[in-house]
Amino acid sequence: MSLRTLNAKDATDLDKDLMSVGAFSLDQLMELAGLSVSQAVYQVHPPEKGKRVLVAVGPGNNGGDGLVAARHLWHYGYQPTIFYPKQSKNELYQRLSEQLKNLGVPFTDDFEGALKDTDHVVDSIFGFSFSGEVREPFAAVITAMENTKVPVTAVDAPSSWSIEDGPPSSGPGAKFNPENLISLTAPKPLVSHFKGRHFVGGRFLPPSVAQKYNLDMPEYKGVEQIVELPAGQNTKTQEVQ
Asked: Fewer Cβ within 10 Å of end Cβ, the chain: N or C?
């Protein structure tokens, strides 16, 4: 099974279609994405391997997915800690943060300190819309994830990577290749550079939308929201006509 990839422009257009013709709200999509992320973490790092999970949260939708995933992980029995230095004033993100605080989930300003006391990291800093230069405080965080021996699960894209071209040629993230990746809705072209375990989470995509973007629908088992692609899985790059 080869899954077609979705470039940045088409990923943006697909999200717009989901919220218009698909009748999804942003918080619904974020909830579904975060649930997929939490299941991927459970698959690669079940609680018996260590319950401490450090979630690096960015300022946009990718960060929101991480906040949702952290809440689900808490309910699975993990002990998440949140690094969220650029907190949004948007009501949705404030509610997601408050939900975690109501569970007693700690927030930290010291990523590198927290990294020394964790068993797993979720990278939800930048997603498919990222472009340009990585700035502080995230440059130091990406460098820390690049150098740590703690396993990392990236959400939709390893932070700092170009969606089309993969890791940058230099600077933060140039040698960042996390152990795990969860692609949301569909894989992005960067997966041709990825070497670890790769999951897809998109068990909410209406067939009509999948057909418009020529996307393959993987076979999800039981009640699972994710599918793991075999090692070395080939993907087919394409553009919507």
From this structure: C
Summarize pLDDT for 86-139 with one digit per residue, the tens.
998 999 999 999 999 999 999 999 999 999 999 999 999 998 877 778 889 999
**CA-based end-to-end distance of the chain:** 22
Residue among 71, 77, 72, 82 at smallest CA distance from 51: 77
The torsion angles phi and psi of 64, rounded to 5 degrees, stand at: -60, -40
Average the pLDDT over 200-212 and give the result: 94
Average pLDDT over residues 54-65: 96
CA 162 – CA 130 distance, rounded (Å): 7
The pLDDT assigned to 233 comes to: 52
DSSP string, 199-211: EEE-TT--HHHHH
What residue has token string 């994405």?
Answer: 33
Side chain identity at 203, as an amino acid letter?
Answer: R
Q: What is the biggest distance separating any 2 CA atoms in the chain, rounded to whole angstroms?
A: 49
Query: Structure tokens of 217?
Result: 């629908």
Which phi and psi angles does 66 have, rounded to 5°? -65, -40
Determine the angle formed by the axes of helices 26-44 and 91-102, rounding to 10 degrees: 40
Q: Which of 168, 92, 96 is nearest to 126 (CA)?
A: 168
Supply the pLDDT for residue 33.
Answer: 97
Phi, psi for 91 (deg, rounded to 5): -60, -40
